[in-house]
Amino acid sequence: MVNGRLTQQHLTTPLVWLITLCLLSTTHWSFSADKIGAAKKDISGIQKQINKIKKKLNKTKKQQHDVTDALKKSETAISHANKTLHKIKQDQKKNKSNLSKLKKQSLTISQRLSSQQEELNKLLYRRYALGNQSYTRLILQSQNPSRISRDLKYQSYIAKAHTRLINGMQSNLNKIKKLDTKTTKTLQRVAELKEKKEGERKALQKQKSEKALVLKKLSKEISAQRGEISKLKRDEKRLSRLVVKLSKRAKKKTPNEPKKKLSSKVVARNQQTPDNRDAGKKFSSLKGKLKLPVKGEVTNRFGRKRQDGGISWKGLFIRAKEGASVKSVASGKVVFAEWMRGFGNLIIVDHGGGYMSLYGNNQTILKNIGEDVSGGDTIAAVGNTGGNKSNGLYYELRKKSIPFDPLKWSSLR
After folding, report:
1. How do residues 273-293 score in pLDDT, each as one tens digit?
2. What are the boundaries of each domain within the chain?
3. Cβ count within 10 A of residue 390
4. Which residues are registered as beta bridge partners of 346?
5. Is-contact 14 45, C-beta < 8 A?
6. Is the Cβ–Cβ distance between 317 and 407 less than 8 Å?
């Protein structure tokens, strides 16, 4: 025994001896009471070792719980970082649009300024043509009083128009300067947003690396734990059968073959996602019309036994690309949006009438509790949170908390 662990040699030596006794019993049985007692004593020793392994198994489960908590923090942080990154991209897009509008406004004002400059040139030309004569000279040279009055008024009009144009030009120049300043600040904000986005991206990559290490450790722990459980169960069954055989002096029976794991073969493929064409309709009327929330391959059907021999699937697992958009299957309100053990980053939409849709194992949650969503709205991004080895979406439909088969309500193409 090494470090309190039962070695393969300790397990197999008494078992081989006991199996040999059983094989001999098929032709001749002459065991004495002391030999049977010795066999039972060896079995008792093996069972004590099994109990030690079970204690270690409980300790491993505690470690698994701690690792899962660490995984929760990592995946929640990644979800928040992705959400922030998503918002930064939207802000950047909006700022670029504003910058484009400012450039158009600047061009419009420049065109107006050019037009006013042309008009001013015309007025100056007219004033020049009039000779820029003084009021006295106009009176002395003119023989027509009405013409004198008209010329004086025209001089006054030109002067006022000249002043208005100069003021207008100055106002336009000020507007252009303000627009230039505003445009420069907008460009600076865009640059800052870009720098912030790059920082978020680096932080996200670091968190992804940490998540990968946690997932790797968790997978090893789970694999080791399941291996220990399977081995213990086989040993317990084998020991029980041997005790019965020795006690009843029966022939050796061939141990049952272990059950084969259910394969994760593709049971359906989906190439379309939800839209809002059925907006306003009751969810109960959408049976057979729903579309699966993400493009991908359905690898586990509703009601099928899980590979680990546990409970049956209460929904579908759709294998998909990491980061792919997860769509709401119909309109409703987000009632849950956070990490949950076994489901990873989980979002639940209430469609009314007791109907709800669940979307689990997401990399990123993009909606908050209380938000209204329409069919086809992107609510999350595909991932492998919650301890999954494969990227994909876990999808359930429920009525009054009771799950039902999503494929019977969906149209696949």
Report:
1. 888 888 889 999 999 999 999
2. 93-183, 268-409
3. 12
4. 338
5. yes
6. no
